[in-house]
Specification:
By secondary structure, this protein is of the alpha/beta class. It has 4 domains: 97 residues, Glutaredoxin, CATH 3.40.30.10; 200 residues, 3-Layer(aba) Sandwich (Rossmann fold); 94 residues, Ubiquitin-like (UB roll); 82 residues, Up-down Bundle (de novo design (two linked rop proteins)). The protein is built from 21 helices and 16 strands. The strands form 4 sheets. It has a 5-stranded mixed β-sheet, covered by helices on one side. It has a 5-stranded mixed β-sheet with strand order 13-12-16-14-15. Strands 8-7-6-9 form a 4-stranded parallel β-sheet, sandwiched between helices. A hairpin with a 2-residue loop joins β10 and β11. The N and C termini lie far apart (68 Å).
Length: 500
């Protein structure tokens, strides 16, 4: 049996030289007359160790990293294909402390399987959920998802079962399932990692959703900035047609508009129009894509469904705390020593995530603030780092509308200027606004101007900034405008000295 060597094809690993490593592994093996199987797997999400090369030894994976192309000949000399000793040897991959402390559910196959092999997916537990769903009535599928406590992982945290029930009960000759993979939040990459490392999990989740609501057509909306994810997804779809049965899936590429992460703007884009938000009601579950009832879920939400069907609602519900059930892949970025992906059940504290996994700041200075939930998320001070990672616990923080969002966490040390960060949030909205409503379109532009005056010494304008934020919160048509004030007001509340 040929030795198996796995070199990630994930975009983050490629950016750190994985393509050159894979090429040298192949050429070195050929020069030495060694027949090997080279697999391009997904990343495990430990980016400081990328490229992380796995070798399969006696059924166990041994990790070496971070590996450069120049390291490869020395690895062969050390007998790494048999797990030989080398300064880059990290031991059994699953025993690396960063991984061993996690409880991976949705991301458990990422890095472990060949993302372009349906057979590998099925051999590693895939397909069981879809097989079970095909043997039960639609209402029973919806009931299991409802009982699991699964909530939307895109940020809104709306109960998935309620959304599916609404679409199931809506009378229509045609219905749709849409996956929102327009991952545009700063510091987020779990969608990309799953698409590049385990795309069949998403396809299975969408097929189950189709059975649950009576839809025969699905769309995956992916941002065009993810070319490697799109390539992996299309390769998976080419193999999966027969397995998916009558359920068809198409990939639609976004054009880089942040507001198209909002569900109705995304629908407009899929239909071939400019991505601007729709007024609600009607809700997309009643009148969505092409005017038909539509399930819209985030990629991580849909990829969580196969295991729920395969293992049962109770199994999934046993993870987590309160109304936050299951796990969430958190993403650590910014000024953090060990940036990467951490999937754990709800219930840890933010401090545990930042220090036990993240190792504190990369600079070695004290962490002063973190932004949780993307560019429109709240800035939280160190005094709130002991908050439990739970939807309700974050929503209750200080009245600023904090939330977990998509699980992205960006860290800042004590050199950060929080007034400058507040300005960034306003400027981001001014650039990315679809322009449909006045509070968002005009308010964000005026907000940048007001913050500039405050930073220039006109401190009396702080009250005006707060009034403007209130107008945007209550007057904007969608979450883009109504959430832009969250980072601004949280910076004002927790770091007032930076504005004076």
């Amino acid at each position: 049996m040929k030795p198996t060597i796995l070199v990630p094809g994930d975009a983050a690993a490629l950016a750190l030289g994985a393509e050159a490593v894979a090429a040298v592994v192949a050429s070195e093996a050929a020069q030495r007359g060694m027949a090997i199987e080279l697999v391009r797997n997904g990343s495990r999400g430990m980016f400081w160790l990328e490229p992380l090369v796995d070798v399969v030894v006696g059924g166990e994976r041994i990790a070496y990293g971070p590996v450069t192309a120049a390291d490869v000949p020395g690895l062969f000399d050390a007998g790494f294909i048999s797990g030989g000793a080398h300064p880059l040897r990290l031991g059994p991959t699953q025993q690396i402390p960063y991984l061993a402390r996690q409880q991976r559910v949705t991301m458990r196959r990422v890095g472990c399987v060949d993302p372009r092999s349906l057979d590998d997916y099925l051999a590693n537990g895939g397909g069981a959920g879809l097989a079970r769903a095909r043997a039960m009535p639609a209402a029973d599928i919806v009931r299991i998802v409802t009982d699991s406590g699964l909530r939307g992982r895109g940020g809104a945290a709306f109960p998935t079962g309620i959304k599916w029930r609404t679409v199931l009960d809506a009378p229509a000759a045609r219905k749709y399932v849409v996956c929102n993979a327009d991952e545009g939040d700063s510091g987020t990459f779990s969608d990309r990692m799953l698409l590049e490392g385990d795309p069949f999990g998403l396809l299975e989740g969408m097929a189950i959703a189709g059975l649950a609501v009576g839809a025969a057509q699905g769309y995956i909306y992916v941002r065009s900035e993810y070319p490697h994810a799109i390539a992996a997804l299309e390769a998976a779809l080419a193999q999966a047609n027969e397995w998916l049965g009558s359920f068809r899936i198409e990939v639609r590429k976004g054009a880089g508009s942040y507001v198209c992460g909002e569900e109705t703007a995304m629908l407009e884009s899929i239909e071939g129009r400019r991505g601007i938000v729709r007024a609600k009601p009607p809700l997309p579950a009643i009148c969505g894509l092409f005017g038909q009832p539509t399930v819209i879920n985030n990629l991580i939400t849909l990829a969580s469904v196969p295991d729920i069907l395969a293992r049962g609602a109770g199994w999934y519900r046993d993870f987590g705390v309160g109304r936050s059930r299951g796990t969430l892949p958190f993403q650590l970025a910014g000024n953090i020593r060990y940036g990467g992906l951490v999937e754990v059940p709800f219930g840890l504290t933010l401090r545990q995530l930042l220090y036990d996994f993240g190792g504190g700041s990369r600079s070695g200075r004290p962490l002063r603030a973190v932004q949780v939930g993307g560019p429109l998320g709240a800035y939280l001070p160190a005094s709130q780092f002991d908050t439990v990672l739970d939807y309700e616990a974050f929503a209750a923080l200080g009245g600023v509308g904090a939330g977990l969002g998509h699980g992205g966490i960006v860290a800042f040390d004590d050199t950060v200027d929080m007034a400058k960060q507040a300005r960034y949030a306003m400027k981001f909205c001014a650039i990315e606004s679809c322009g449909k409503c006045t509070p968002c379109r005009i308010g964000s532009t005026r907000g940048v101007e007001v913050i500039d005056r405050i930073r220039g010494g006109q401190h009396e304008q702080i009250d005006l900034l707060r009034e403007l934020c209130e107008t945007m919160t209550h007057g904007s048509l969608c979450a883009m405008g109504s959430m832009t004030p969250i980072p601004v007001t949280s910076a004002l509340n927790h770091f007032p000295e930076d504005f004076r």
